[in-house]
Design goal:
Blueprint (H helix, E strand, L loop, with lengths): L1 H12 L11 E2 L1 H7 L2 E3 L14 E10 L5 E11 L3 E11 L9 E6 L4 E2 L6 E3 L2 E5 L5 E6 L6 E8 L4 E3 L4 E4 L8 E19 L3 E4 L4 E9 L3 H4 L2 E8 L3 E9 L8 E9 L2 E6 L2 E10 L6 E13 L5 E9 L5 E4 H4 L2 H7 L8 E5 L7 E6 L5 E4 L1 E8 L2
Antiparallel strand pairs: 1-13, 2-12, 3-4, 3-16, 4-5, 5-6, 7-8, 8-9, 9-10, 10-11, 11-14, 13-14, 14-15, 14-16, 17-18, 17-28, 18-19, 19-20, 21-22, 22-23, 23-26, 24-25, 25-28, 26-27
Length: 384
């Protein structure tokens, strides 16, 4: 009876769930045992737009050797089926100019809607459109004159999702789950277009290396994950992406990792055989989280010709780009419904080491190891 009451309160108020244990999550890694990954089609890129509690996002990361590192993002957020809010975020890290402050724009969107086939998102002065051929996205936003976005991101390698559906499921009856987590990736893309700022005018991103992720958290985010790790490596020949979440104790502190490596025209390997390790940390005295200072990301898999793939990116993260207090950015209504949860203090740490470029070490079968320097954008998120 107590567990039922605790679950009911968690559903309504966002408080901590009872401990169901690892049997209440079906990791996408189980699918990946039979099908490590599937290449995505247009149908895999549809918005779900759930009418119950969820957070669904499309985010585009762009890096270049000599210019800023950026991401632009549209967020669809439903709170308990009571109210839906949408947000457009733009962040520009002037990593090539230490004197310039990061530009952050987060704008509420009005009058949101989707295309008939649910592959494109629209709102007042904002559009994120999938092209007819399914090969590129156009991202436009005029909601904030500090950052006017007019970008195109075109994939140069196939997209993928882990397993056959990309989904991890949550619930005590996994045939009728009460929640889910899903990620779809375009790991290797090229960017074009501009972001126009008041200070710099149009910043040209032509030729920038890009990553696209469509993610769905199909219940309260802090019930799904207590911690996250994210890595986006972009090199001249290869791209590597890794997304890891660790569930709260309510789901057995289960670790789920998805990732892949791509080069132009092909997926080298992808699936759930990947790891993220904080090799060294330091305590953040402002909130007690163990901020990583050195990391190690690994990928393992099988190439289409049957060759074994092993890859690693490791090294120091240098000084962080930013530390985000997530609750400070959450809309007031969402915070009131889902916030104020004991033990929940979400912070995101962001990095892009530049002074000593990290490298992707990749070995295929018996071939000599490839060592490819590139740019790493990394995040470590602590929630509860």
């Amino acid at each position: 009876m107590f567990k039922w009451a605790q679950q009911t309160l968690a559903n309504v108020a966002g408080t901590q769930e009872p401990e169901y244990g690892p049997s209440a999550i079906l990791s996408v890694a189980e699918e990946a045992k039979q099908t490590p990954y599937t290449e995505t089609t247009r149908a895999d890129l549809k918005w779900t737009a759930m009418e119950s509690t969820c957070v669904e996002t499309q985010v585009f990361y762009i890096t270049s050797d000599n210019g800023p590192a950026i991401f632009v993002q549209v967020i669809y957020n439903n709170v308990a089926g009571i109210r839906t809010t949408c947000q457009f975020n733009t962040k520009i890290f002037f990593v090539n100019d230490a004197k310039k402050e990061t530009l952050w724009s987060s704008t509420p969107l009005k009058d949101h809607e989707f295309s008939e086939d649910m592959t494109s998102f629209y709102a007042a002065d904002c559009a994120v459109e999938l092209s007819e051929d399914g090969e590129s996205y156009s991202i436009k936003s005029h909601n904030d004159d500090r950052a006017v976005v007019n970008l195109v991101v075109k994939r140069t390698a196939p997209g993928f999702q882990a397993g056959s559906t990309g989904k991890s499921l949550f619930g005590t009856d996994l045939h009728h789950p009460w929640g889910s987590m899903r990620h779809v990736f375009w790991p290797r893309c090229v960017a074009s277009g501009t972001i126009t700022t008041k200070e710099d005018g149009p910043i040209d991103f032509a030729g920038g290396r890009a990553l696209f992720i469509h993610a769905l958290q199909g219940m309260k985010p802090h019930h799904l994950a207590a911690r996250w790790n994210f890595a986006n490596f972009q090199g001249p020949e290869h791209s590597a992406v890794l997304m890891q979440f660790i569930t709260p104790p309510s789901y057995g502190s289960t670790v789920v990792t998805v990732g892949g490596i791509a080069r132009d025209g092909e997926i080298v390997c992808a699936g759930t055989d990947a790891t993220a390790t904080h090799v060294a940390t330091k305590e953040d005295t402002e909130n007690d989280w163990p901020e990583p200072t050195q990391i190690k990301y690994t990928w393992s898999g099988t190439a289409k010709d049957g060759s074994k793939i092993e890859a690693v990116v490791e090294g120091g993260l240098e000084e962080r780009l930013d530390r985000i207090d997530v609750m400070a950015e959450v809309p007031g209504f969402v915070k009131k419904i889902a916030g104020s949860v004991a033990g929940t203090k979400p912070f995101i740490y962001q990095y892009c080491p530049r002074e000593t470029k990290l490298a992707l070490k990749l070995r295929k079968g018996d071939a000599p190891e490839v060592l490819e320097p590139g740019l790493l954008f990394a995040e470590a998120t602590f929630i509860s």
